[in-house]
Specification:
The structure holds two protein chains of two kinds. Chain A has one helix and eight strands; from the N terminus they run βββαβββββ. By secondary structure, chain A is mainly β. The chains are: A mainly beta, B alpha/beta.
C-alpha cells in the first residue's frame, strides 16, 4: 500500500532527519481482514523508519504523549485512533507538539 | 585625547542624565494624558461633538481609518476591539510582534506578563525590544514600545512570573489570553486557568523552523488537556536556547496569534478553533488540520471535571510535567568528584603545558561557533564509533612525550554546559578510558571563571 508519511516537530530527527517518506507498506492480513490499520502502521514505522530513540516516538503500542497523529489532515481521534483503517495514497502525519516561543 | 576611562565616565554620567530626563518626560506625558482624558470625558458627556461618529473620537477615526473602511471589519469591529482587553503571557519571540500589532490595532486594554530581562541573544527574534533595554525587564521594554506605537490605549505591566497563586487574579481582568510562553508546565497552567475562568486562549509555539497555532477553550473546541491529556517526557521538549530558532519563525506565529485574537475581540470571521495550523518554514508549507473537539473525559474541561479555582491554585504543574516552570538549564551530577575538574584547574593544565587530549563532545554545528584551542570535536552521538580515534591520539601523545613524563596523557571532555561531557566520561570509563575527566560546567564555566572574552551562545 502506497502511503505518504510525514514527521514534524522534531520527530524527523528519529528517522534520518527526513520529513517526508513515500513508502510502500507490505502488511499481513489479520483475521482474514484485508485492512491496514494505524496500529499496524505504527509497528511498521517503528521497525522500518525509526532509527534511534524509539521511546521518543512510541509508548506501549501507541504514540508517546505529546505526539499528534493526523490521517489526511484530520486528528486520528476523530477516525478511531489505532483502529483507523488506511487506504491507498493516504497521508499520515506524526507531529510532536512544540512548547518554545 | 581623552583616555578610555574618561570616556566611560562621561558616558556613564550622560546616561544618568538621560535616564533622569526620560523619567521627567514620562511623568509629564502621563500628566498631559490625564488632562486630555478629563477633557475628552467632559466633552463627550456634554455631547459637544456635532457629528454622529458611533462613539469613535475624531483622533480614533483618523488613526484607525484603514480598519474602518474595511467592509468586513468596519466601525463595529474597531469599536469592539477598543472595548476589548487582551493579555499576552510572554514578551518573547511570539509575544513581541503580537504585542506591537495589538497596540497598533487599538486593543482597549493590553496586559503583558513576563519576569525575564532583555538579553542580547533575544534580539534576533524578540523584535519589540531594543538594545537600550538590555538588562531591563522585558515587560518595561515591551510596554514602552507599545506606548510609543499607540499612546491612546491602556497598557498594563505585570512584571512577575505566572504562578497558580497569581494567574486567576491576572487572567480575570482580561477577555482573551494569548499564550506566548516557552515551556510545557506554563502551557498547561495557562490552559487550565482559561478553562476555569471560561476565557478563549490563543496558543502559539515555535522552535527551530516550525511553528504551531490554535485556539483553545473557544466555541466548543478543545482545551490544551483535551489534546494532550498526558504531558510529554521532558526530553521531548526542545527549547529555543538548545534547539535554536530562526527569528522570523516565532515572528510569523506571533503575528498569526495577533490576527486570531483580534478576530475574536472584534467578533469577525471564523476563529482557528477545532483546527490547528502547522507551519514548516524550510519547505514553505502551511497545513491546517482538523483536531478533536472538547473531550467529555477531559480532566480540566470534561463533563465530570472537578477542576475549579481551588483545585487550580493547588495544582503542581512542575510535578505534573516533570519540568520546572523557570527552565533553568539541566545540571546533571553523574560522576564522582575525582573524575571531574573545574575549568580553572583545566586552564592551569594548559598553562603548565601538561600533556593531554581535549575532546569536545558538542554537535559539529556548535563546535563551528567557537571552540577551545587544540580541542578535538567528537560529537556525543558519534562517540561510540570514534573510540579508536581517541585511542590512537592518546597513544601518539604518549609516544611523543616519551617515557619522560611519569603519567600518561590525560583525557578531558568538554561540552557546552557540562551535561553531555559527564555522559561521555561515564561511557569512556565503561570502555576502559579510565583517565577521562569532564570539565565541570563546560564552556559556559570557562567563559565565566577563566576567560570572560570567550564568547557564549
Amino acid at each position: 500500500m502506497q502511503l505518504t508519511l510525514e514527521f514534524g516537530g522534531g520527530l524527523e530527527l528519529l528517522c534520518d532527519s527526513k520529513k517526508i517518506h513515500n513508502v510502500n507498506v507490505e502488511f499481513e492480513q489479520q483475521n482474514g481482514e484485508d485492512k491496514l490499520t494505524m496500529k499496524g502502521l505504527l509497528s511498521w514505522v517503528r521497525t522500518n523508519l525509526i532509527k534511534e530513540r524509539p521511546e521518543m516516538f512510541m509508548k506501549g503500542d501507541t504514540v508517546r504523549p505529546g505526539v499528534l497523529v493526523l490521517v489526511n489532515d484530520c486528528d486520528w481521534e476523530l477516525s478511531g485512533q489505532l483502529n483507523t483503517s488506511l487506504e491507498e495514497k493516504d497521508v499520515v502525519v506524526f507531529i510532536s507538539t512544540l512548547h518554545g516561543g | 585625547m581623552s583616555s578610555a576611562s574618561e570616556i566611560l565616565q562621561q558616558l556613564e554620567s550622560l546616561k544618568n542624565e538621560k535616564t533622569k530626563i526620560e523619567h521627567k518626560i514620562s511623568h509629564l506625558e502621563a500628566q498631559l494624558k490625564d488632562i486630555n482624558l478629563q477633557k475628552q470625558v467632559s466633552a463627550s458627556s456634554n455631547g459637544s461633538s456635532p457629528y454622529a461618529t458611533n462613539g469613535l473620537e475624531p483622533h480614533m477615526i483618523h488613526r484607525y481609518s484603514r480598519h474602518l473602511v474595511l467592509p468586513s471589519f468596519g466601525v463595529q469591529g474597531q469599536a469592539n476591539l477598543l472595548k476589548s482587553s487582551i493579555l499576552v503571557v510572554g514578551a518573547g519571540g511570539l509575544g513581541a510582534p503580537a504585542l506591537l500589532y495589538f497596540a497598533a490595532a487599538g486593543v482597549g486594554k493590553l496586559g503583558i506578563v513576563d519576569h525575564d530581562k532583555v538579553e542580547l541573544n533575544n534580539m534576533h527574534r524578540q523584535i519589540i525590544h531594543t538594545e537600550a533595554y538590555i538588562g531591563q525587564p522585558k515587560v518595561k521594554s515591551a510596554a514602552a514600545a507599545c506606548r510609543s506605537v499607540n499612546s491612546s490605549i491602556e497598557i498594563v505591566e505585570h512584571e512577575e512570573a505566572l504562578r497558580t497563586s497569581n494567574a486567576l487574579e491576572i487572567f480575570s481582568k482580561y477577555d482573551i489570553i494569548v499564550d506566548a510562553t516557552d515551556n510545557a508546565p506554563t502551557r498547561y497552567m495557562i490552559s487550565d486557568c482559561c478553562v476555569v475562568l471560561g476565557k478563549p486562549l490563543v496558543s502559539g509555539a515555535a522552535v527551530g523552523l516550525e511553528g504551531q497555532l490554535t485556539i483553545y477553550n473557544h466555541n466548543g473546541g478543545p482545551c490544551y488537556r483535551c489534546l494532550f491529556p498526558t504531558p510529554p517526557p521532558r526530553t521531548a521538549c526542545q527549547s529555543c536556547a538548545d534547539g535554536g530558532v530562526l527569528g522570523v519563525v516565532p515572528g510569523i506565529i506571533g503575528c498569526l496569534q495577533a490576527l486570531e485574537a483580534i478576530k475574536i475581540a472584534a467578533s469577525v470571521g471564523e476563529p482557528l478553533s477545532g483546527r490547528m495550523l502547522l507551519f514548516d518554514a524550510l519547505s514553505a508549507r502551511i497545513r491546517i488540520v482538523k483536531i478533536r473537539g472538547r473531550s467529555m473525559q477531559c480532566e480540566a474541561c470534561g463533563e465530570n471535571s472537578t477542576f475549579n479555582q481551588q483545585y487550580f491554585r493547588e495544582f503542581d504543574y512542575e510535578k505534573f510535567t516533570q519540568t520546572p516552570l523557570c527552565v533553568p538549564p539541566l545540571k546533571l551530577n553523574l560522576l564522582p568528584s575525582e573524575s571531574r575538574i573545574s575549568s580553572k584547574e583545566y586552564s592551569e593544565i594548559i598553562i603548565n603545558k601538561e600533556p593531554h587530549v581535549l575532546v569536545d563532545v558538542r554537535p559539529a554545528h556548535h563546535f563551528k561557533i567557537v571552540s577551545l584551542p587544540n580541542s578535538l570535536n567528537i560529537p556525543f552521538s558519534t562517540l561510540e564509533s570514534r573510540l579508536p580515534e581517541i585511542s590512537s591520539i592518546l597513544k601518539k601523545d604518549e609516544e611523543e612525550k616519551g617515557a619522560a613524563s611519569e603519567s600518561s596523557a590525560r583525557l578531558y571532555v568538554v561540552c557546552r554546559r557540562g551535561n553531555d561531557s559527564q555522559r561521555a566520561v561515564q561511557y569512556l570509563h565503561k570502555m576502559g578510558f579510565n583517565s577521562a575527566k569532564d570539565i565541570v560546567g563546560g564552556l559556559e564555566s570557562w567563559a565565566q571563571n577563566v576567560d570572560p572574552n570567550f564568547p557564549t551562545y
